[in-house]
Amino acid sequence: MTTALKDLPEKIQSWAQELGFSAVGITLPDTGVHGERLQNWLDAGMQGEMTWMGDHGDKRYTPTSLVPGTLRVISVRMDYLPSPDNPAEVLQDADKAYVSRYTLGRDYHKLIRKRLAQLAGKIDEAVAGFDYRAFTDSAPVMERALAQRAGLGWIGKNTMLLSTKAGSFFFLGEIFTSAPLPLTEAYEKDHCGSCTSCLDLCPTDAFDGPYVLDARRCISYLTIELKGSIPEDLRKKMGNRVFGCDDCQLACPWNKFSKPSAEPDFQPRHGLDNSTLASLFLWDEATFLKRTEGSAIRRTGYEGWLRNLAVGLGNAPSTIPVIEALKARADHPSELVREHVTWALEQHQAH
């Protein structure tokens, strides 16, 4: 089968849809002003312990340095919101553990990479002789920058990619190719307007202003990337958020257009969309490893999981199950866990 390059974008749209992607665009391997903004952000130290954000020289913002010979980047979107779901209800119940919606099901990396490989295979069948490399949050790639330039949406004040048709509850993936495909028009309009809901409602006041997130104060960073002790002045503000945080997305008016995912793999597993802090805190390491198999939650590790839950329990109502769960871990072998348990118990003694 051979297809003219000019006819290919329409076919790519159709194949992408068949594979579960909701949108696709094609751009040059150029991140434009986004590379400079990244450098300014790194220079300000807002990446915290995420030193890898500054590694790899210019590869993160220059796709042709990452994959020489790249002429185009195909950017795709896949929605992940589970259904039915009521995140606001969980956030308002201080006994419950809030887990970021993107991580309730299976880890998205393998699923999306496999689908991207299938999409690249279909393109290769249609126009042979070109190279393809697929990525999804798996290499130094400025995914949101490339998606904006591929026409999938604009980068909002909360630094998320936003779409008027789908909000922001979606994953992104890319195929770098040497095929000179026709381009999609970049998304140049910013639909945030005067709205500052995401900035105003951030629990830890992590935004240094519109479009600038200080990761060191962000709950997603604190519960996933930070390896040591969570700063005491931020613990009360974390509430019951134990892995990631969706507040800046939940606050965004555009997310009323979010579409529930049709992917079975993104549906919640092990009741993580509606579990109590105390019940999760009593998982032993074997249970944690079993129930987070194939899940992004593994990223924080068992110690980090207990640390995060201890903070949530410190912010929970002073009930017998909460106090008993904390006391059961008071002599935990990990100094990190013990420190956060001690802090949590002190919060209940103060009442």
Could you list some keywords that capture this structure?
351 residues; alpha+beta; 4-stranded antiparallel β-sheet
Low-confidence residue ranges: none
Task: Give the helix tally.
Answer: 15
Radius of gyration: 21 Å
Proportion in helices? 25-40%
What global shape is seen?
A: elongated
Largest sheet: 4 strands, antiparallel
**Structural class of the secondary structure composition?**
alpha+beta
Q: H/E series, N to C? A: HEHHEHEHEHEEEHEEHHEHHHHHH
Strand content: 5-15%
Distance between the termini: 72 Å
Question: What would you note in describing this structure?
Answer:
- The chain is of the alpha+beta class and 351 residues long.
- Among the domains are: 5-82 and 104-177, no CATH class; 276-351, no CATH class.
- It contains 15 helices and 10 strands.
- The protein has helices spanning 8-18, 34-43, 63-66, 87-92, 108-126, 143-149, 197-200, 219-225, 232-235, 247-250, 277-281, 285-291, 301-314, 320-328, 335-349, and strands at residues 23-27, 72-79, 98-99, 132-135, 154-155, 161-162, 170-177, 207-209, 212-213, 241-243.
- A 4-stranded antiparallel β-sheet has the order 1-2-7-4, with helices on both faces. It has a two-stranded parallel sheet with strand order 3-10. It has a two-stranded antiparallel sheet with strand order 5-6.
- A hairpin with a 2-residue loop joins strand 8 (207-209) and strand 9.
- Helix 1 runs antiparallel to helix 5 (108-126) and helix 13 (301-314) runs parallel beside helix 15 (335-349).
- The longest helix is centred in the middle third of the chain and has 19 residues, at 108-126.
